[in-house]
Amino acid sequence: MTGPIILASNSPRRKELLRQIGLDFRVDPADVDESVLPGESPEGYAVRVALDKARVAAARAGKGIVIAADTIVVLDDEILGKPADPGDAERMLKLLSGNVHRVITGLAVMDAATGKAVTRASITDVWFRSLALHEIISYIATGEPLDKAGAYGIQERGALLVDKIDGCYFNVVGLPLSLLGELLLSFGVDVF
User: Domain with 46 in it: what CATH number?
Assistant: First the structure.
């Protein structure tokens, strides 16, 4: 591998997770069209958006290994993105209350010089406990849900909403670290 490792995201959570595993990286956020295509599955959508982000960052970098991800919350095949406003956050949290949903992260790792990319999706099932309306309103008042897919963050106060999970915890935070380690190895990057 030649060149730097580039995170194609400005997510504070993703940056912290990469620091946690001791990776030396630089940040180059990539904005792409995140519209869902007709007939696109949630998994296919998340992987496509991650790959689009990787391509944008790779084209700018010219060399190095690009890491890109897109995390979505899916309830009954409805993709719940970041809420548009507090009212939208309330709608999402009411939907999630007492239900199980999936958190899907599409992950793309790309060699900027060659364009070679490896993509995968990580899926975690998340069970919310039943929430009282005052809990939802109080949580929204913290401001925490407004920049997060599905209107919650499991690594912060949103942990109080989650009864249990089945799958990778770090996927729910926004970057499945075990899967990332596997994909990086295919490019000769050993995180240990």
Answer: 3.90.950.10
